[in-house]
Design brief:
- The chain is an alpha/beta fold.
- The chain has one domain: Rossmann fold.
- Helices cover 48% and strands 15% of the residues.
- It contains ten helices and nine strands.
- The strands form two sheets. It has a seven-stranded parallel sheet, sandwiched between helices. The chain has a two-stranded parallel ribbon with strand order 7-8.
- Strand 4, helix 4 and strand 5 form a beta-alpha-beta unit.
- The longest helix is centred in the middle third of the chain and has 29 residues.
- It is globular, with a radius of gyration of 18 Å.
- The chain starts with a strand and ends with a helix.
C-alpha cells in the first residue's frame, strides 16, 4: 500500500519540487497551497491521480484545525509553507508579523501537534520542517523572519529528541538562498543579481539532500555544500558584514 504524504506550500519552489519527488516515488499526496491559480497549474503539470489538491490559508488557525480534523493521518509531513519577509525593526505591521509567525511557526507546531499522537499510535512516521539558514545566523533587516525560523528550528530539534524512540523521525532543513519566486514576491528580486551564483541552490537539491537526511534519521540538514562549509563562520561579525554588503539594495 502506498504511503501518504502531506506537503504544505506545495504549488511552487521547494514544496512543488518535493511534491514532484514524492510523486515519482509513488506516494499518495495531500498538497496544500494558498494560491488557487498556482495550485491548478501544479495540478496540470504533475498530472498525478494519487494527489489531492487543497486551497487553504495556513496563516489562519481554523485552517490548521480543519486539516487535522479531516485529513487522513500522513506517514510523512513536509512543513514547507512560507513567505520571504523583510524590513528593518519596527517596519512590519502587526498583521504582517502575526500572519508570518503563525504561517511559519505557530501553524507548523499546531499541524504537527495535531497529527503526532495518531502517528505515535501507528508506530511510524517522518516529519520534515523547512526552516532556514537564517535560524542560526544574524539577518539584519530580516529579524522577524529569522526569529520565526529560529523558533521552528528549536521546536523541530526538541521533538526530534522526544520522538526518536517512538518510531518517528524529525528532520529540520536549513536552506540558504534557493532559486524560487519567494524573493521576487517579497520585493527582493535585486538579490538575484547581488548574490553570487555559487550561493544559490536549486529546490531539487534541497529536496534531494533533505530527503536523504530524513530517511537516514538525521535531526538537521543544511542543503548545499557551500553552506555546510561556511556554517562555522556564520556567527562572526565579519560574515554578517559581508552578507549585509552583498544584499544591500542599490540606491
Amino acid at each position: 500500500m502506498a504511503k501518504r504524504a502531506l506537503v504544505t506550500g506545495s504549488s511552487s519552489g521547494i514544496g512543488f519540487a518535493y511534491s514532484k519527488y514524492l510523486m515519482n516515488e509513488g506516494w499518495k499526496l495531500d498538497l496544500v497551497s494558498k494560491n488557487k491559480d498556482k495550485s491548478q497549474k501544479s495540478e496540470l503539470i504533475l498530472n498525478y491521480q494519487n494527489a489531492e489538491f487543497h486551497n487553504v490559508d495556513l496563516s489562519k488557525k481554523e485552517s490548521i484545525a480543519d486539516i487535522v480534523a479531516n485529513f487522513k493521518t500522513p506517514d510523512l509531513i513536509i512543513a514547507n509553507a512560507g513567505i520571504a519577509i523583510n524590513g528593518a525593526i519596527g517596519q512590519l505591521n502587526e498583521r504582517e508579523k502575526n500572519d508570518a509567525y503563525y504561517l511559519m511557526c505557530g501553524g507548523v507546531i499546531d499541524l504537527i501537534e495535531g497529527f503526532v499522537p495518531k502517528m505515535i499510535d501507528k508506530g511510524s512516521g517522518r516529519i520534515v520542517i523547512i526552516s532556514s539558514i537564517g535560524a542560526i545566523t544574524a539577518m539584519p533587516k530580516s529579524s522577524i523572519y529569522s526569529s520565526i525560523k529560529s523558533g521552528v528550528y528549536a521546536y523541530g530539534k526538541s521533538i526530534s529528541a522526544e520522538l526518536k524512540h517512538k518510531g518517528i523521525t524529525v528532520t529540520v532543513s536549513l536552506p540558504g538562498y534557493v532559486r524560487t519566486e519567494a524573493h521576487k514576491r517579497a520585493g527582493l528580486d535585486h538579490l538575484e543579481s547581488k548574490i553570487p551564483k555559487w550561493m544559490w541552490v536549486t529546490p531539487e537539491t534541497v529536496v534531494k539532500e533533505t530527503e536523504k537526511a530524513s530517511r537516514g534519521g538525521k535531526t538537521e540538514i543544511i542543503p548545499g555544500i557551500v553552506y555546510r562549509i561556511t556554517k562555522p563562520f556564520l556567527k562572526f561579525q565579519s560574515a554578517i558584514n559581508i552578507w549585509q554588503s552583498m544584499t544591500k539594495r542599490n540606491q
